[in-house]
Amino acid sequence: MAQTITSETFETLLTDGKPVMIDFSASWCGPCKRIAPFVDTLAEKYAEQAHVVKCDIEESEDLALRYGIRNVPTILFIKDGQVVDKQVGAAPLAILEEKLQSIL
Questions:
Q1: Which residues are catalytic?
Q2: Is the peptide bond before 31 cis (omega within 30 degrees of 0)?
Q3: Contacts of 42 (CB under 8 A, 6+ apart)
Q4: Alpha-carbon torsion 94, 7, 81, 12, what sign?
Q5: Helix %, strand %, coil % of the chain (to 5)
Q6: What is the pLDDT of residues 26-74, one digit of tens each?
């Protein structure tokens, strides 16, 4: 299962060198709920290679603002501290996995 992060825990993820896939979502968002199992699957499958995490935009507004999140779900793919890809809206598992593999 994907770890839920906050601003404080996110900073430690950025400094350890692994790529990061972060799912910005909200508890009231239907499409977010549809892709949640995909994010959990990727978190388990790639646990050794990347951080696959979730961020509730209502609990960590500062992170959402920092990355200009205006729609949920939005998934950012971060490598070396920089956003290198983004998925706005729900997407199939295969697309999310392909984007994650591209930053490994």
A1: 29, 32
A2: no
A3: 2, 21, 52, 93, 96, 97, 100
A4: negative
A5: 40, 25, 35
A6: 999 999 999 999 999 999 999 999 999 999 999 999 999 999 999 999 9
Cα 60 from Cα 48, distance rounded (Å)? 25
Position 21: which residue type? M
Amino acid at 30: G
Question: Tokens at residue 16, please?
Answer: 């350890």
Q: For the whole model, what pTM was predicted?
A: 0.95
What does the alpha-carbon distance between residue 50 and residue 69 come to, in Å, rounded to a whole number? Answer: 22
Q: Where are the beta strands (DSSP E) in 26-94?
A: 51-56, 74-79, 82-88
For domain 3-102, the CATH superfamily is Glutaredoxin (3.40.30.10)
